[in-house]
Structures are given as structure tokens and as C-alpha cells.
Write a structure and sequence with these properties.
- The protein is elongated, with a radius of gyration of 24 Å.
- Helices cover 32% and strands 38% of the residues.
- It is an alpha+beta fold.
- Helix 1 packs antiparallel against helix 2.
- The strands form two sheets. Strands 1, 5, 6, 7 and 8 form a five-stranded antiparallel beta sheet that branches.
């Protein structure tokens, strides 16, 4: 945000200098300063939007844990899933189905943008209960929850809507995983540069 503020401030100064040049009857200075000022302001606003858009995303440089999940069956094709996120957040969801499904958005920046220090980042998007048969998927109760934090700018959505962001990043990359829930268990949702994986790390005690 500091870089964005500097660009916008310098751009605003140039725009003001351009107005002064116009009043002083120097049209060439007015044009050059105004165009450069508009460019810097635009770049600053874009950088600010990107900064806001990636808030909540976590940098991905290797395999790491995106969430720990404790699952507990509560009845036939019913279970709860309690999420522990790396930032300290916790959330619990009541799900219907045979399996737990989790997916994520992954922002993969183009190599030139990596030079600015922006690395591949990820954000878990949603969790849902999944049935093993297609017929039940169509007819049985569906349970679906968003697990992405709210943010003022949805960079993933902006990339899909605006083609001019294409040179900066490829935001079309999503990944999803699912595993059966047959008994209490502790799971780890891990994210790799190639996508999500989910592993059972331990059987959870009854009543957990």
C-alpha cells in the first residue's frame, strides 16, 4: 500500500503541475505532465487494488498446511467438520453426504511479476458434503459453505471479468479434493504448487 500511495501522490503532483503549465500557456508541458501523472495514478490505483485483493491469500513457496479439519459423523450421511486455519480462525460446519469436499483459488503470477516479490498464493474457497452416487448428488440434501474471508476487492473475480489483468496473473486456477468420512478423524488439507491434497493424520477420539 505504501508503494501505491507513493505512485498516486507523485501522479497527483504531476497533474497539479500540468494544470499550472496550462495556466502558464505551456501546452507541451501540460500534455506531458498530465499524461505522466495519469499513468502514475492509474498504476498506483492498480497496485492498491492488487494489494487489497490478495489480503487473506497466503504465499505458497512449498507444500504447506492450509487447514486442519476434525470430522465427526453425527448420523447416516451426516457429519460435522471443524476447521482450524493457520491464521488462528476456527469454524464448524454441519455437512450432509459421504465425503468432505474442499476447494481453493490459486493465484499464479506471471514470471515478470514474481520479480516484484509476488509469489504464487492460495485461498481456501468453500467446503461441502459430497455423495458417492450421482443420483444422490442430484436429489439429496446439499450442504455448501464459503470458507473464504470477506475482502473489499475480489482479485480472482476481477481477473475473470477484465482481460487487461491477463499479463499480470493467471487466476483461472482452482483445485478441489475430497475424502470419505466414515469415522472420527483428523485431516490435513495441504496445498502444493500443483493443487490441493488431503491426508488423514490421526483418528480422532469419539465425541471430539
Amino acid at each position: 500500500m505504501l508503494g501505491a500511495a507513493v505512485l498516486v501522490s507523485v501522479g497527483a503532483i504531476l497533474l497539479f503541475a500540468g494544470l499550472l503549465a496550462l495556466f502558464s500557456m505551456h501546452p507541451l508541458r501540460f500534455m506531458t505532465r498530465t499524461l505522466l501523472g495519469l499513468l502514475l495514478v492509474s498504476l498506483g490505483l492498480l497496485e492498491g487494488a492488487i494489494t487489497l485483493g490478495i489480503q487473506g491469500y497466503r504465499a505458497l513457496t512449498h507444500e504447506e498446511i492450509a487447514a486442519r479439519v476434525f470430522v465427526q459423523p453425527t448420523g447416516p450421511q451426516r457429519f460435522t467438520a471443524r476447521f482450524h486455519f493457520p491464521d488462528g480462525r476456527q469454524a464448524s460446519y454441519a455437512l450432509a453426504g459421504d465425503e468432505i469436499y474442499v476447494d481453493a483459488h490459486i493465484l499464479k503470477w506471471h514470471p515478470l511479476i514474481n520479480l516484484l516479490g509476488l509469489q504464487t498464493a492460495y485461498e481456501l474457497d468453500r467446503v461441502e458434503g459430497r455423495y458417492q452416487t450421482v443420483d444422490q448428488e442430484r436429489k439429496a440434501q446439499r450442504t455448501l459453505y464459503s470458507i473464504a474471508p470477506a475482502r473489499p476487492v475480489d482479485l480472482f473475480g476481477l481477473r475473470r471479468r477484465y482481460a487487461f489483468l491477463a499479463p499480470l496473473l493467471d487466476a483461472q486456477y482452482g483445485s478441489g479434493v475430497f475424502v470419505p468420512v466414515q469415522q472420527p478423524a483428523q485431516l490435513e488439507v495441504r496445498v502444493l504448487t500443483s493443487g490441493l491434497i488431503i491426508r488423514q493424520t490421526a483418528s480422532a477420539p469419539q465425541g471430539r
